[in-house]
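Dear colleagues,

I hope this message finds you well. In preparation for our joint manuscript, I am sending the Inositol oxygenase (Coniochaeta pulveracea) sequence together with its predicted structure, so that both groups work from identical material. I would be grateful if you could confirm receipt.
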Amino acid sequence: MAPSAIYDHAEPLSGRALDDISDAIDEVNVLKDQLSSTPAYDAQSQFDAAKDKAQFRQYESACSRVRNFYREQHAKQTVAYNLAARAHFKSASRIRPELTIWEAIEKLDTLVDDSDPDTELSQIQHLLQSAEAIRRDGKPRWMQLTGLIHDLGKLMVFFDGAQGQWDVVGDTFPVGCKFSDKIIYPETFALNPDSKDPIYNSKFGIYEPGCGLDNVMLSWGHDEYLYHVVKDQSTLPKEALAMIRYHSFYPWHKEGAYSELMEESDWDMLKAVKAFNPYDLYSKSDGLPSVEELKPYYLELIDEFFPQRKIKW
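The corresponding structure tokens are as follows:
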């Protein structure tokens, strides 16, 4: 017998009940419209449409502070140093300070990044500029939070283990294989002893083609540090973790270098980092944000993705 033949029909609905159901359906449709109107995380950025992007990352005309920083970074970021830095980070004896995300933001506010030719603003201003640009474009809340925290790895400059700014900030690049000429100031790698090592100075070095970026050792700094801090202490999606881990890897996401090391999943991560990059870079010319006005909104956002208030750094 067909199912309809054994269906026990209920009593006809009253006009009031029908109105209630209709109202409920309308509410659901409104929510659907709101969700569908939220741009995808990788939709084209709009906040920077009228900006002159040629004025950013002008390293040829950068001041001596920036040039000196990269000369030191390129000389000292060796395989040996990177192995030691990672061993220190993972050491059970390392004292891990505990701070909330907002406490970390306030602590970082005294740092001016020696590697950045585009701004001399404090870090809290840059972080809020990035987050607010993402918010203005209507991007997902997890991406807004990523903009707010993406540079918090720079806190390591205040903690035991950092040698200076050269192992904290600046563009990142693989160690253990030939340094690409797509890295800024490539000539300064002549000062790095790995550039004279027959294995480390070969095209693939210690890696295999298609090994995947998870298996590539990038120069130690705030990107890698924050990635390891956040991945086990937040509910941020993998796209956010990629934005944090690779946002300074300009030779890869901007210049197309090292693609031969990528595996299939890395292409999705590249899409995420490219979607994030305009908000990190081009927001630096925006107006100064009001910290006190924005703080309540971002405190709520932090609590949404960081279940435990105190983070082990």
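For the figure legend, we might mention the following. Residues 1-10, 32-36 have pLDDT under 50 and may be disordered. The first strand starts at residue 98 and ends at 99.

With kind regards,
E.M.
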